[in-house]
UniProtKB/TrEMBL annotation:
<keyword id="KW-0378">Hydrolase</keyword>
<dbReference type="InterPro" id="IPR024078">
    <property type="entry name" value="LmbE-like_dom_sf"/>
</dbReference>
<dbReference type="Pfam" id="PF02585">
    <property type="entry name" value="PIG-L"/>
</dbReference>
<keyword id="KW-0479">Metal-binding</keyword>
<protein>
    <recommendedName>
        <fullName>N-acetyl-1-D-myo-inositol-2-amino-2-deoxy-alpha-D-glucopyranoside deacetylase</fullName>
        <ecNumber>3.5.1.103</ecNumber>
    </recommendedName>
</protein>
<dbReference type="InterPro" id="IPR003737">
    <property type="entry name" value="GlcNAc_PI_deacetylase-related"/>
</dbReference>
<dbReference type="InterPro" id="IPR017810">
    <property type="entry name" value="Mycothiol_biosynthesis_MshB"/>
</dbReference>
<keyword id="KW-0862">Zinc</keyword>
<dbReference type="GO" id="GO:0010125">
    <property type="term" value="P:mycothiol biosynthetic process"/>
</dbReference>
<dbReference type="GO" id="GO:0046872">
    <property type="term" value="F:metal ion binding"/>
</dbReference>
<dbReference type="GO" id="GO:0035595">
    <property type="term" value="F:N-acetylglucosaminylinositol deacetylase activity"/>
</dbReference>
Amino acid sequence: MSNPRLLLVHAHPDDESSQSAATIARYVDAGAQVTLVTCTLGERGEILVPDWEHFTEAELGQHRIDELKAAMDCMGLTDQVFLGGVGRYHDTGMDRAPDGSVIVPAEVPDNAFWNADLLEAANFLVEIIRSRRPHVLSTYNAIGGYGHPDHIMAHRVAMYAVTLAAAPSHAPELGEPWQVQRVVWSTHNTAMWQKAYPIAREKFPDLFGGEERDPDSFGPAVDYIEAVVPIEGYFDVYRRALAAHPSQVRIDDPFWQFHAITQQLPEAGEAYVFGCGQPFPPSDKPHTDLFVGLDLD
């Protein structure tokens, strides 16, 4: 690779570790320029450490900045930006409908990311895109993976910003136009989750509340997954980065143990589907490089 540049757009601190830790660390080690954009401070995250249950939302957000810094140290990441500045957008939070689906809470903060002006938020990202000039941008799919409002908004902002950043007539004061060559959407590695599920169910009967899961519900159809960045050699980095967010993650929880099982199987890795831009070259198997086939300057 010649001077590859990767930009990742995540909604909250800890999302980068649960979904992209191996990707970030692998490309950092390869000499790539890697930039993380975090859209909120995660002020409405569930507090899992009893000693911190007294935190206000503002106090939790400030604490999660430190957790993010610790995770970045694990991954070797040095370039991180909060969209619009620290605290510009507040974690919207999430609720669940009677059927279990994720919904927007009835009451949200005035500056909730879900309610952000789309053009304003996109312009904050346009400036970052034009300054970092990434070849590949990674974010969530249109439903935010599992429906969290902030993940959905991150997708909308990222996709809009990619279009605006390339337009010479749009906001020239934000920098020279830049065309992101490829946009990818992070996703579960469906095949690995399907293989790991029976193993995890046997070890952890209470996984998913003890309810049986349809293996087809774990992610997109396998044929849609265009790239799997291998976790081999980076499993320890992934686990340490995830553990750096103790307010949100109990590393020994059955779900995260299940997640760990998926990441230790042969061919395990962080999966991506193609969003837009230059497609991946045809292949019978997922590529292991997000930059494959691109003309890097």
